[in-house]
Amino acid sequence: MSRQLTCPACGETDELTGRPGPDGIQITCDTCGADWLRDAAPATCASCGETELVHRPQATTAYSRGTQVSIVGWRQLPLCVTCDAPMLSRSLAGKPIPNGYRPAAMTRHDPGEPPADEITILPR
Fold it and tell me: Which of 60, 49, 58, 51 is nearest to 108 (CA)?
């Protein structure tokens, strides 16, 4: 699962380089030269920078016969307690996270975009 890394010194998210070291993966910011251990940095929301993420299961589905949808696997999806709050409450209520849902914790959502919880589930 991809994780958004941000330089703690300058906030850079693109110009980062990682290399294996004795204590883990050492991340270096190519912009300001700051170094830190990858696993020491908490996972953050790609949209708001929140560090409180909740991992919830999402079914991976495929059309096995015509319009019959089958679950073919599961993955753990990080949901931000702030940006993904409607989908998090839906998941905690026992409802599935739609297969096409892209959480704000993984993909940056700008304020002008429609809310992430507005997803219509239609057959192909």
Answer: 49
**Assigned token pair, 118:** 């507005």
- Please report which helix (H) or strand (E) contains residue 36, including its range: strand 35-37
* Rounded CA separation 55/36 (Å): 24
Tens digits of residue pLDDT in 96-105: 898 888 888 8
57-73 pLDDT per residue, tens: 998 888 888 888 888 88
DSSP string across 48-62: T----EEEEEEEEEE
Joined tokens for residue 98: 């739609």
How do 24-29 and 16-21 pair as beta strands? Answer: antiparallel
Which runs of consecutive H residues, i.e. helices, occur in 1-124?
Answer: 85-92
pTM metric for this prediction:
0.58
